[in-house]
Amino acid sequence: MSHERLRDDVAAAARGLAHEGLLVGTAGNVSARLDDLVAVTASGVVLAGCRPEDVTVVSLAGAVVEGELRPTSELSLHLGLYADTPAAAVVHTHAPYSTALACVLDELPVVHYQQLLLGGAVRVAPYARFGTPELAAAVRTALDGRQAALLANHGSVAVGGSLDAAVDNALLLEWLAALHHRASALGAPRLLTQEEQDDVIRAAISTGYGTVQRLDTEEDE
Ligand SMILES: [Zn+2]
User: Fold this and answer.
1) What is the tally of helices (H) and strands (E) in the chain?
2) I want to staple 136 with a disulfide (CB 3.0 to 4.6 A). Which of 35, 40, 66, 80 is the partner?
3) Ligand 1 centroid to 78 CA: how many Å?
4) Contacting residues for 106 by C-beta, under 8 A, at least 6 apart
5) Centroid of ligand 1 to alpha carbon of 158 (angstroms)
6) What angle, 0 to 180 degrees and rounded to 10, lies between the N-to-C axes of helices 75-84 and 133-142?
7) Mean pLDDT across the stretch 202-213?
8) Whether 219 is catalytic
């Protein structure tokens, strides 16, 4: 894959997340890694109209390799995750429900089994000012063993083994945050026990949950 393709893909992902309501105005940023380069949305870009030229290519150390625009102010958060984790893409949003929960909760507990796709309960990284190394470090810690984290009084971060996976994880987190919000309006949400979570993971592994399966393939059970 070329730089051009990577910039196209990041721009398309940003537009798609804006269309879904997760990126509003200029708030949020998206990046994807290819070998030792990272394509990341530029600072101040209206993400619903993000074009490939609004995506800047940098080295893993943050030096601009291609593009005319200054990268997002959260560049160190993105680069820190590429340095310390196998993430191939990073999505940062100020999505409405994720951000609302991040203003109240210390953790988004598991109320629905689909949350296990994110690795379990989603941690809320302690508040630190945007663009700081403190915020980047807090997010790295909160993401340990997880595909997503909430940022206290700020928003969300999702990672993935591909750009599509990071986008899906950001969308799933926002859906779960909305679910928690709606359920909480009715009463205290009932949580899945560890035993119930373990049972879901075993069943998902044995049945290939979440994958498209042809009718003529044999089932395990
Ligand atoms: Zn932000």
Assistant:
1) 6, 9
2) 80
3) 12
4) 123, 124
5) 12
6) 40
7) 80
8) no
Amino acid at 32: A
Phi, psi angle pair for 24, to nearest 5°: -120, 125
Supply the mean pLDDT for the chain: 94
| Assigned token pair, 95 | 């999505």
Report which DSSP code applies to 120.
Answer: S
218 vs 221: CA distance, rounded Å: 9
Parallel/antiparallel/unpaired status of strands 37-41 and 55-59? antiparallel
Closest CA to 150 of 132, 127, 171, 124: 124
Q: Across residues 44-50, what is the average pLDDT?
A: 96
Q: Of 53, 68, 74, 218, which one is the catalytic site residue?
A: 74
Tell me the three state secondary structure of residue 203: helix
How close is the Cα of 207 to the center of ligand 1, in Å?
38
Amino acid at the residue 98: S
* Gap between the Cα atoms of 173 and 101, Å rounded: 11
pTM above 0.90, yes or no: yes
d(CA 28, CA 43): 9
What is the token pair recorded at 26?
A: 């200029």
Cα distance between residue 122 and residue 165, in whole Å:
17
| Nearest by Cα to 150 from 163, 134, 138, 166 | 138
Chain mean position to CA 87: 10
Which residue in the block uniquely carries the two structure tokens 């210390």?
106
